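pls design
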């Protein structure tokens, strides 16, 4: 037996004024608004290994000198400020989605972080920040013999 789900309608959705619903639907699903919300900050991946944490930010079109990484107590902030050139201002775009002119992302660091062991690398449009863990936080793997 196959189950088929039918779309449910709330009471009187189109009964009052279908035009109003269409305007609000198109306003909130407009690609202009959704594109602006998505492109404000770059996407980030955070991974953890036995010895370090790794942040990867997708930030294509920037150079190494555009980035600023600072650590204040247990907060790491990655920011970038890209100055647009005169050739960018004079170009006529029909749609422009690269808009990382400036951004700032902050992340709270756990207590196991070694603040002297933080390295950053920018290659192929991805900023990788590796944050080492303290030696006592690294769990040593060993085999336990059963007696």
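designed seq:
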């Amino acid at each position: 037996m196959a189950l088929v789900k039918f779309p449910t309608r709330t009471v009187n959705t189109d009964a009052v004024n279908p035009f109003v619903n269409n305007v609000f639907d198109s306003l909130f699903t407009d690609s202009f608004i959704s594109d602006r919300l998505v492109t404000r900050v770059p996407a980030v991946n955070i991974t953890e290994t036995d010895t370090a944490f790794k942040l990867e930010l997708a930030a294509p079109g920037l150079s190494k000198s555009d980035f600023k990484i600072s650590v204040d107590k247990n907060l790491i902030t990655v920011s970038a400020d890209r100055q647009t050139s005169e050739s960018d201002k004079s170009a006529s775009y029909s749609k422009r989605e690269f808009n990382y002119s400036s951004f700032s992302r902050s992340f709270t660091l756990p207590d196991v972080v070694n603040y002297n062991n933080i390295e950053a690398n920018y290659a192929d449009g991805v900023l990788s920040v590796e944050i080492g863990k303290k030696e006592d936080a690294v769990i040593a793997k060993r085999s336990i013999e059963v007696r």
